[in-house]
Amino acid sequence: MHRFFVETPVSSNKAYLAGSEAHHLIHVLPASVGMEVVLIDGSGAEFDARVLRIERRGVELEVITRHAIDRELSFPFTLGVTLPKGDRQRWLVEKAVELGVQTLVPLQTERSVLTPTSTSLSRLRKVVIESSKQCGRNQLMQIDTPQSLETFQQRPPQESLQIVAHPTSGIPVSSIEDLRSSILAEGRPVFAAVGPEGGFSDQEFADFQGASWQAVSMGLRILRIETAAISLVAALTLR
Ligand code: SAH
Predict the structure, then answer these.
(1) CB of 5 closer than 8 Å to CB of 127
(2) Could you tell me which residues come within 8 angstroms of residue 131 by beta carbon, excluding any fewer than 6 positions away?
(3) What is the residue with the minimal CA distance to atom 10 of ligand 1?
(4) Ligand 1: residues within 6 Å at CB?
(5) How far away, in angstroms, is 198 Cα from ligand 1 center?
């Protein structure tokens, strides 16, 4: 069944699609009156709906049934990551949505090479919608405004598990398998941090340790930001 995202939360038996979603429905599908589609509004529910009226730039639909379907992880996962460039950034966001990350926080670090602009963030939010439609997720992953590393390090509430990815360099690392078991068993909020291509500086890493973040290593090779981030989320959450 084709899925469409409505900007305005569905609260009655009528819904209206506009913009690129309407374009897709009218011209790409293409829609006909009476056709049934699924609507998501990012609220954690999805709706069976039927096309009532097709206009030049919008489609009116009748909402038939609301289904509250939970496709979220059983614990909130916040991923702090220094965004890579261009397509790699889109890839990272798409996969983070698929794996169930609840909040993505772009990190500003000493060696960050790029500061995301509001235009690039709104482009990434569109990727979130596309990816959610494709993977069946009905709550949108939030992309926060960029945050300093210091703010992010202090952000997790007391009961959270805080994990920083850092290539092995003789420092003690936690076993990902043990962390995963406790995450799945305890359902505590998880915060994970992945650094820039140049890595976290010694001072930044010391600050993580000072704020009780646990370091994990992901093997003997240096992974690119997006590989490290997605591997870490998968290793900690898949059951
Ligand atoms: N030149 C940097 C590597 C940066 S890779 C250095 O040697 O530290 C970008 C980020 O991906 C790192 O900051 C880290 O968070 C993560 N990362 C990459 N490879 C990793 C590995 N093998 N284990 C743990 N984290 C890794």
Answers:
(1) no
(2) 93, 94, 97, 98, 137
(3) 195
(4) 165-167, 194-195, 197-200, 217-219, 221-223, 225, 228
(5) 8
First to last CA, the chain: 27
**Cβ-contact 58, 52 below 8 angstroms:** no
Minimal CA–CA distance to 49: which of 1, 8, 82, 89? 1
pTM of the complete model = 0.94
In tens, the pLDDT along 153-192 reads 999 999 999 999 999 766 777 889 999 999 999 999 999 9
178 contacts 140 by C-beta, under 8 angstroms: no
pLDDT tens-digit readout, 187-204: 999 999 999 999 999 999
Ligand 1 centroid to Cα of residue 202, in Å, is 13
Q: Which atom of ligand 1 is found nearest the CA of 216?
A: 24
How far apart, in whole angstroms, are the C-alpha atoms of residue 143 and residue 227?
Answer: 19
| Nearest ligand 1 atom, CA 200 | 13
- The token pair that represents 67 in the structure block: 């289904």
